[in-house]
Amino acid sequence: MLKRYISYMPQEDAFDEQLTIGENLLFAASIRSPHLSRRDRTRRLDAKLIELGLGERRDAVVGSPEKKLLSGGERKRLNIGLDMIGMSDVYLFDEPTSGLSSKDSEHVMEIIRGMAHNKIIIVTIHQPSSKIFQMFHKAILLDKGGRLVFFGTPSDMLRYFAEAEHQHQFGAELGACPSCGTTRPEFIFDVLETPLRDLSGDVIYEENSRGQLVAARRYSPEFWRDKYEAFRLIQDVKQVSLRKEAAAPLPVAPVEKKRVPIRWHDEWTQFRTLLRRAFISKLRNRANLIITIGVSPVLALLIGTILRYSESGKYDFASAYHIPTFLFLGLIVAMFLGLTNSADDIIRDRAVLQRERNVNVRLSYYVISKTLTLGVFALIQCVLFVLIGNYVLQIRGMFWIYMGIMLMTAMGGVSLGLLISSLVGDPKTAANIVPLVLIPQIIMGGALIKYEDMNRNLALLYALSHWFSEHPSNEQEKKMGSKLEVPFVCQFIAMRWSYEEMIVAQAKLNPLTRRQDRTQREIDSIVAKRDQAPTDRQRLEDLKETLALLSGLEAESPSELDHYLGLVDQILDRKRPFDRALFKNATGPVTAEQIYVNQKVSDLISNAEMEQSDYRRGNRPNVFFGAQKRYFGIKVGVFAFNTSVLIASTLGLLGLLHWILRKQLEVRRS
């Protein structure tokens, strides 16, 4: 309950380095105060920029510590301003002056002190200067092990240790000058850490817990703790209240568990802010953006040019030898780009993520915004690859199908990359893990090494099912089994599902085969009717003519062929009857099969259909490239099933990512 009233400012920089100062503060205001209107947030931003002394640098990009765009003082002021722009009542600052010059330190402390008139401010600081030390209202001094050795005003602290120095004669210089009003806080540490000396005056050294030699202290931390407790006890005795009766305790307020209503406007503002910040940050990194967008078309051009080969010598799509290889490499590129785009995202955002969890930013919104942002860039990469690759290899009519399957594969890579990024601590380690994820996808995807040539002992589930059922002989296994069945371990490889769906899509969903199958299905449905009306018989004749036409459709050019296919669509949609006169000029050197049907892909599908329909097997096995699957007695199409597997695996990885991040942040808070 108290967490929303407390803001913690970490010592390390916790902001997005790709955004400007104004954008960082504006997004921080939207996340911490989503209930405010846009005008109120803008007003608060302008006031905070003036208070932080960053008004003139509002549009300056923050940059990284290695690439200096802001001074150390400006970065530190921005870091503390991200939480100051909120509406907390308690602020915790962790060494806000570390690494700053004396002037920058004083500026930062003046800003923090200005908040103290109506807020509770707690600051940890090491060896402050005289001017900074005087700014504090109260000071807590902790010795080694967190032992409390003093609590009070800075002047009382100096007086206390001055008396201790005089009492024990440590020989330390005085810590204050009453006439000039200056203080020397180092005096306190000189008294606390007075070294132990031998009779000759030399410092005695001892070994610490790390095995290092350090100066032995004259008095231990326990001594100073006990001394302060005795001092505080005497002070309490002197200030005993003259009241004889103790004041009655305040009544305990009843605890009521009220369900806080969801403020949908605040939730939408927070999610929209996280999404905008993630997208702008990714877009602002120009070098990474150029590489991200440029790699896909270069790889498409390279792969397409190398694989543009036909056995006849003159290239045509029907006899193109490497179409299955191109489809597989396209999926590998999609997963590779998804992995590399996301493998370091959470590593860079870890400090910001930890900071914003303290203000109740929903972790699910962060994961969704990251996924959507990376998904936009993955979509652009897939579009460029498919456009260029299909143009080089003359693949027609498959753009949307290719792009959909490649995008699902790329999103699987994005989710894997984000998962890697959540498990490692630096980008170099994440980059080294990417090949460990990608190489199994290449080896067990079903293209580089065919499943019929792979070690069959990998099919553990298949072997176990036979062991517990009927213990078939080796001869029976040879009869019943199929070499095209996918080994069990390969079922967990996303590339296996993507590649199978891509090959079957090219064979079954190309513009020619799709229309042929649609025509045949309608013919079968009419033939299956017992009582056929005259309109059904006429429709059946039109469909037979259409199917015969499609089998040998020719034209002068691919564009003219597309025109004839458009007329076929009108016939299938019952917008016009079949008329042979519409196709009287449908002759020429270009055939529909030559343009849309690839022989290598058709051979893969034909082989799978033969294996699946072999009469020697009592059941139809689930073979690779089979158009139909059967699981638990349920028959399902390959497109629906493989798409479901790809989407479910991506969502599962994102769910695991959410759980890991939540556990990591809980450990950090504890």
Task: Give a verbal description of the structure.
The chain has 670 residues and is mainly alpha-helical. Among the domains are: 126 residues, 3-Layer(aba) Sandwich (Rossmann fold), CATH 3.40.50; 84 residues, no CATH class; 211 residues, no CATH class. It is 57% helix and 7% strand. The strands form 6 sheets. It has a 3-stranded parallel β-sheet, covered by helices on one side. Helix 11 packs across helix 18. The longest helix is centred in the C-terminal third of the chain and has 32 residues.
Rounded Rg: 37 Å
- Proportion of residues in helical segments: 55-70%
- How confident overall, as mean pLDDT? 84
Shape descriptor reads elongated
Give the number of helices.
24
Largest sheet: 3 strands, parallel
Structural class: mainly alpha
Number of strands: 13
Uncertain runs are 475-479
How much of the residues is beta strand, in percent? 5-15%
Strand order of the largest sheet: 1-2-3
Q: Termini distance?
A: 16 Å
Task: Provide the descriptors you would attach to this structure in a database record.
mainly alpha, Rossmann fold, two-stranded antiparallel sheet, 3-stranded parallel beta sheet, 670 residues
In brief, what are we looking at here?
Helices cover 57% and strands 7% of the residues.
